[in-house]
Design brief:
The complex is a heterodimer. Chain A is mainly α. Chain A contains eight helices and no strands. Chain B is built from nine helices and two strands, in the order H-H-H-H-H-H-H-E-E-H-H. The chains are: A mainly alpha, B mainly alpha.
Chain lengths: 194, 189
């Protein structure tokens, strides 16, 4: 089945209205782990968006192929393999091009493999029956939304470092409270995508 | 024992394990789903323990999710509702950090028996964590527990608890409880 959702509404829906982090709880690991500094957060967002785009395009091809040979039960395994190998590629690239960034991202770089946001993009687009271009825009929107959430969070957390916060709230609890408020704020986008 | 350590890890150490719990709350429609999610999850941890023992890692583990997905949940009539209410989150158990981390940290270094016990403990701990979030959200957000009304009729539901934001707030609240206890223990010394 094909859907006739317009590209613009797919983009707005994936990035703002149904933000992957703030509305679906996907990709919480890097959202909480790498959002301490603005610079790292931006680059992490870039890396995830890149992997999402590759994974989404490959997932479209794989799904078409599997549907043709009637082997859709292989879907999950093949998506995982594609995502893992793309992450491997990104890891080698980052290690070579920017060792500093490689150290800054640390364990969270290989963990992009198990970032549920990426597998979710691949699965959701298949479930929704998106075409190639629609899938691409969907992945782009999801990546932009993820990066946006990460950047907003990093900005707030950088400010919070200097704020007088009670000891009880310090750390992850504060981060989660901020995430909750951000999530509420994103509710304001409801209805925007049409 | 393992269960308890998992609860502490999943509530105390959100970046590593806790994030997963939140996910199942998307629908926000109650503790019943938590149980089902936890059941599927237990099955996942369980078979991951076996598979790891056999020397196969994530590929077989993702294959297992498949069994859940197609063989188990989608085809059996009375559980079709489960598959619908959990939606794509069943498939996403493939990328659950808890399963992979236990396979890597425990099951690959221990015997089958010990791995199964560890998996069981982890599964129970995960269930407790999931329930502690789901119960708070369902009681405050819907005035019910396991779809049974527990609060008086004139109770005004906190809609925010059913929204995604409620998941973040509830987990933050649990963390605050744990932090407060730690602080108090520190000042008592």
């Amino acid at each position: 089945m094909m859907t006739d959702a317009s590209l613009w509404s797919i983009f707005i829906n994936a990035s703002l209205v149904n933000n992957f982090v703030l509305a679906y709880f996907l990709g919480i690991c890097p959202f909480l782990g790498v959002s301490g500094k603005m610079g790292t957060a931006t680059k992490m967002g870039g890396a995830v968006t890149f992997v999402m785009l590759i994974a989404s395009m490959s997932a479209y091809g794989i799904h078409a192929l599997l549907a043709r040979i009637d082997a859709e039960f292989l879907q999950l395994i093949s998506y995982i393999v594609v995502i893992a190998s793309t992450v491997q590629l990104v890891e080698m690239f980052v290690k070579k091009m920017s060792p500093a960034l490689f150290r800054a991202l640390g364990i969270f770089l290989p963990l992009i493999t198990t970032n549920c946001a990426i597998l979710a993009v691949a699965l959701f687009q298949t479930n929704k029956g998106y075409g190639f271009l629609q899938s691409f825009i969907y992945a782009l929107g999801a990546g932009v939304g993820f990066t946006l959430a990460l950047i907003l969070m990093a900005g707030i957390r950088e400010r919070m470092e200097l704020a007088p916060v009670p000891n009880v709230v310090k750390g992850t609890a504060l981060t989660l409270l901020i995430a909750g408020i951000l999530s509420l704020a994103f509710m304001g986008f409801a209805g925007l995508g049409g | 024992m393992a269960g308890e350590s998992c609860l502490r890890a999943s509530i105390g150490d959100v970046p590593h394990l806790g994030g997963d719990e939140l996910r199942y709350k998307c629908g926000g429609d109650g503790v019943g789903n938590d149980f089902r999610a936890a059941y599927v999850q237990c099955a996942g941890v369980f078979s991951a323990a076996f598979y790891t023992q056999a020397g196969a890692h994530s590929v077989l583990h993702s294959h297992h999710c498949h069994l859940c997905d197609y063989g188990g949940l989608r085809d059996s009539g009375h559980q079709r509702g489960v598959a619908q209410s959990l939606g794509a989150f069943i498939s996403l158990i493939v990328v659950n950090c808890l399963i992979l981390s236990r396979a890597e940290a425990f099951a690959s270094k221990n015997t089958v028996g010990r791995s199964v016990l560890d998996a069981l403990g982890m599964g129970i701990g995960f269930t407790v964590g999931l329930l502690s979030l789901g119960a708070v959200r369902e009681i405050l957000g819907n005035g019910s527990l396991f779809n049974l009304p527990v609060l008086p009729d004139n109770f005004q539901e906190w809609i925010v608890m059913i929204l995604p934001a409620g998941g973040f707030f509830t987990l933050a609240a649990w963390l605050l409880v744990f932090n407060a206890r730690r602080e108090r223990a520190k000042t008592d010394k």
